[in-house]
Design brief:
The chain is mainly beta. Helices cover 6% and strands 66% of the residues. The protein has an 18-stranded antiparallel β-barrel.
Amino acid sequence: MKLMMKACLLALLLPVFAKGQETGMLRMNPDSAVSRTDAAIWGGVEHGWFRPTYEGPFQWKAGAEAKLVRHGKKTSWAGGLSLEQMMGQSMGSSMLLEPGYFPVDVLDVAEGTKSRQKGKLEAGFLTDLGYECAAGLHASAQVGHIAKQQGMKHSSFGMEAQLEPTVTYVMDDDMGLVSSYLVRVRTEQLKIAEADGVQPFMDLGLRIGAFESLGQFPILEFAHGFKELLYSPELNAEFGIIWKRGRAGTPDYSRFLFPGSTLHATVEQLFQADKADHVYRIAYRRDRDQLRNPNADGGGFTGLFGRHRRNLDLKYEIRFLHGAVKRIGVDLDGNRWVEEGLIISRSDAAKWFDGTATLLSSFSFGPVDLDLNFLAARGWWGDRGRLLEPEDTPGRMMTDWLRNMDYRTATRLGVNGTITVHFSGVRGLYAQLYGSWNHAVKVVCVGGQNREIGTLRIGYQF
């Protein structure tokens, strides 16, 4: 029981080993209590003009990663390391490492070649406190750097550190409760070199803002929250909330404030049968962010922008216990977005919906595993209020806004799949090929209708 508890919590602490509700399936699986190491290198390309404005029509990525789990008599350890290099052509729009994450953005009006590097280091341990209880800690640190050397030259360097202490309690009837509390600090430093008098655009939401001479733009965010997971062999229920407080602009981060929160809840039910397991899953997520300008006299603040997102995901799977077909399922995912620009009035707003239906399937033919998915998606959107032109104060980068909204809501069809080959001559060695193709039925502002992705991964498990 103790060893199973260790494996269970390590899976929960380190998403690099198991993602989403898949961790619930690992909790009582004795195979997860085996020490293991996995190392891999990978590389791939993306091509096509059906893309958001911050992506390039052609870009390549390459990386390497390693992860391990080790078990002792009373304590287990886990760790992970990953590195990634990306380079893309004709990339513009957002200058930040993760476009859209913060409610404030800085835009580049000229496209060019960008390079980006990412690195992440994780470590965790879990130790027994008794027959039924265990406690542990997961720590992670990641860094990122992006640079553009053409047109408006700029670079951004970001760091993130997170600590997550966790306590788990497992009962003799294989039910368990896992509680964790996380603290996260995220920072980013953007430096800009203006070219021929061209200035970056400060986006205060809805692509409304103004061209400014910045030089640099620092961002600092602090977040904390908790997660609770109730597990049983037939039912998983997870709930969590994270509160965020951010500051940005000027050397002392005093120009903008952006509080926010993220709430998520998931329930997964498993029904066992003689030949297959039936799995039902429902997940809900709500994100809220605000952008504020503190008043100069220290008395309160002025609202600039607000955004709200709600996501609902419904999933049903049949997991076959025997035969070549391993899984058949369907996933329905829907999003509702509301963004309000508060610079002029609350009448400046945008609202859109998008939904995706995906057919899921998995097969196994001896040493070859195949995952194949088909999807269809569609969205609707609308603006209300003033349609600001670039010469207005504040201005609006309407072309960039329309291209991104066209991409987000375009009706599309797609297929993606992964083929994994396990080499019998060398135990643990595998090759994995991933491919994806998306086609937009009709676009108005985006430059093309297709996007293709291909990635090759070589790994070794021991």
